[in-house]
Request: fold
Amino acid sequence: MAWVSWSTMTKHASEGLGFRDVQCYNDVFLAKLSWRVINHPQSLMCRILLGKYCSTESFLKVENRTNESHGWRGVLIGRDLIRANTGWTVRDGKSIEVWNEAWLDNTNQLRPTGPAPEHLTQLKVSELIDPNSQDWDREKIQSIIPLYEELVLRIKLSKTGAVDKLSWLKTKSGDYTTKSGYWTAYEMTRRDEEQHHQTDFDWNKGVWKLNVAPKIKLFLWKTFQGALPVGERLISRNIVGDTKCTRCGLTESIHHLLFQCEFAQRVWALAPTNPTVEGSGLIDFPVNWTNLMGLTCLPPIGLSSDVLIPWLLSLWISHNNLLFNKKTASPEDIISRAVASVREWLNAQEPAELSPRSRPIVERPIENCHRLQSDAAWREDYGIAGLGWTIKKNTERASFGSHCHFVASPMVAEALALREAIFKCKELEIQRLKTDSIHLVKAITSKKPPPDIYCIVFDSISLISEFELIQFKWIPRE
Ligand SMILES: [Zn+2]
Reply:
């Protein structure tokens, strides 16, 4: 748990780091904590916090009171960032109030605009669902929120009992990430201030598209944003004020750590680049970055500089805080560790780059097994999907089809076709199944399907868990 105090923010601001950057960085960590409170309320820390501060109201609704602790007020700042950028993914509708919460869209906070009829102000979304068919009650929707009928019908419900989930609207998966949290906080603050922070730095080329691990990209991004947690550890341990460089005793700043410190210059001097980097000559990090990325790495390292240098920076900065981390590392250690880490990471990437289809499939014949193939066609203009599936065994072959209205995308259509197909197999009491559904394979391996197909995939997974055997493989289309 780490939050940056007011005194650090002003200190960073006076050192030339953007106040706004540090503030966003702070909010993002508080939001991460709040996300944990929402998603893991049973953890010990969450139970303590919720028991103390949310005994009468839910975490999402509780108001900020001035007499509460500084720490808790910080958590609520993060909660507000979450609250302003989340919406419900409807699964059974029991946790969602029709008029008071956003639930109609996966990318924007959208709720029906009132006024709500007086006796229906607390209406739950579950009350718009027909308990028998477990599908939307169109008559009710037409009488209560007729303008939103189409949007509501596009939400595909679970038929096997998934529960509602709060989704972060800024990522495809619906999960909060520090990266998207940062950008959202940054954008919100920027808009609030109506003051544009222009930069010519190419973020894609300089950071996001580098072939390095995500954690290294995040480190670079924080560095460029001036949000490197230089004083953070000090603050979280209540040691405020003294932020001298632990290696040389001069005033610690990001620029000092990266270029000016005597230690940094020793690392640069040893780095296997051509020409050798002269640390003391580097004044502006973003401007120098492009040049650093273009350097040649000397043999026998066999790595390119745009992979090695980011790793190197991150390693020595993370080893910098000698006050708390008594382990000291020499420039030589850091360089050899960086080379080892890069190699390890690159090796780990290779198997992932092989497409599953390019690998030979080892086929083990399975007795008494049906083959299932499903497919869907989608018409954007009518929002209608045609669903088809074929079940085959030896020479027997049965084809089925249906259609579905209010389908938002081809992905939803394909997921629906698969769910229908699996329902059918269940109905036919098929026990052993082979399928080639890329959707299903992806959904099962990632465990995080996008919010708009979550319910459908959830149902498919619950259903297939009842089969005696299911095998995924690519079946050539005939
Ligand atoms: Zn120093």
